[in-house]
Automatic annotation (TrEMBL):
Residues 1-23 form the signal peptide. This is DUF4382 domain-containing protein. The keyword rRNA processing does not apply. The keyword Signal applies. Residues 34-188 form the DUF4382 domain. Keywords: Signal. InterPro entries: DUF4382 (IPR025491).
Length: 396
């Protein structure tokens, strides 16, 4: 594994274990008609799991988005060792698992396949999950074992240059439970992001996070990157590989037992890392009241591809997302624990002055719950948790 790092930017604890990486536009090509593609793997936070293992058997790319697994024209990415078993939940806050690199003919590549090894009949499983407080269970990946996890990409290989990308494997949205059976399925949610070392990242510190804390960077209410604070590094977090420059990001720190905090107007540029605060001005979370919420999406039976998300409004045309889950493949439900205190909001300071928090009182215990099923309109219901826990159901 390697950290994305630059000595003048990243904390010393990160740099000491880091390997410096080439910029995405740097060298690495072999001749005037070919370039080099390098890939690494990272992860966003998972929900309710201590470990999520996948074993990468091979990676390959193609210039046709419709190419089949047996069609000619596939180019393999050379892996340092085959196969490679990876715990996705270790790949946070800039930590990467290098998959390898290969020389490719110049041109545009539009399909990538991540092939996973099949599970054996006994432990250790090649692909597995360990629910928090539970035992390790096999992670069923039927399509991945034959043709690979198909990912639509748009990668341009330029002559004599290195194209440097990160596969962001969102374990939280990719692992689907199957009722009370103890079985789990993999329905992968993977983004392909350019790798930067100078900017397009935000970092900071949360002083008293819990195992349930999450940090996300959102643009217009849409989560762009998320992670968890690292208690071993003074609550340090970093959100790298951001795709869009903007001065209007919201940094959302959500924790059902310690309330929600939002730093608004956070800028992101390709020139430098945006620092929200320093270690000696780490964000302090306050204890919060919390209530439970269960939401389901069914059409007689569970809709396995449905996703439930929870949002809060911070005024006219402004909202944040607190959490998102793929529904259970048997009963179609997702469960959440939500802080019911008002969201605390502060404005980003480029001078790293102490953040000044103000409550947005209208947000207290007020939520919007949404069901997203591919191919159908998004359904939404308001939820008021002032009277206690609640349940909402979506029918299709």
């Amino acid at each position: 594994m390697t950290h994305l790092a630059k000595p003048s930017i990243w904390p010393l604890a990160v740099v000491s274990a880091a390997t410096l990486l080439l910029a995405a536009c740097g060298g690495g090509g072999s001749d005037a008609s070919s370039g080099t593609l390098r890939l690494a793997l990272t992860d966003a936070p998972a929900c309710g799991y201590d470990h999520v293992y996948v074993t990468v058997d091979s990676v390959k790319v193609h210039q046709s988005a419709s190419a089949g697994e047996n069609d000619p024209g596939w180019y393999p990415i050379t892996l340092p060792s085959l196969p490679k078993r990876i715990d996705l939940l270790e790949l946070r806050n800039g930590l990467l698992e290098e998959l390898g690199q290969t020389a490719l003919p110049a041109g545009r590549y539009t399909q990538l396949r991540l092939v996973l090894s099949p599970n054996s009949a006994s432990l250790p499983y090649a692909n597995a999950v360990t629910p928090t407080g539970g035992a390790q269970a096999a992670l069923t990946t039927p399509s991945a074992q034959q043709s690979g996890l198909k990912i639509n990409v748009d990668i341009e290989i330029e002559p004599g240059k290195l194209a440097d990308f990160v596969l962001d494997f969102d374990a939280c949205k990719s692992v689907v439970s199957a009722g009370n059976s103890g079985k789990f399925n993999l329905k992968p949610v993977i983004s392909v992001l350019p790798r930067f070392i100078d900017g397009m990242a935000v970092d900071g510190y949360v002083a008293n996070s819990s195992p349930y804390s999450s940090v996300s960077l959102q643009l217009n209410g849409v989560v762009v990157r998320s992670t968890v604070p690292d208690p071993a590094r003074q609550g340090y977090f970093v959100l790298p590989y951001l795709p869009i420059s903007s001065a209007n990001y919201d940094l959302v720190i959500a924790d059902p037992g310690r309330g929600t905090r939002v730093v608004s107007a956070v800028p992101v540029t390709p020139l430098a890392i945006t620092h929200v605060n320093s270690a000696n001005q780490a964000i302090q979370l306050a204890n919060s009241n919390a209530q439970g919420l269960v939401a389901s999406a069914t059409a007689g039976n569970a809709i396995a591809d449905a996703t439930i998300s929870v949002h809060q409004s911070l005024g006219t045309d402004r909202e944040i997302e607190l959490a998102s889950r793929t529904v259970d493949s048997v009963n179609g439900s997702s469960s959440f624990t939500l802080a019911t205190d008002p969201v605390q909001v502060a404005t980003y300071s480029p001078t790293l002055a102490p953040l000044s928090w103000l409550p947005y009182n209208a947000s207290a215990a007020q939520f919007s719950v949404r069901s997203n099923v591919p191919g159908t309109p998004i359904q939404s219901q308001p939820v008021d948790l002032r009277a206690g826990s609640a349940r909402v159901d979506f029918s299709y």
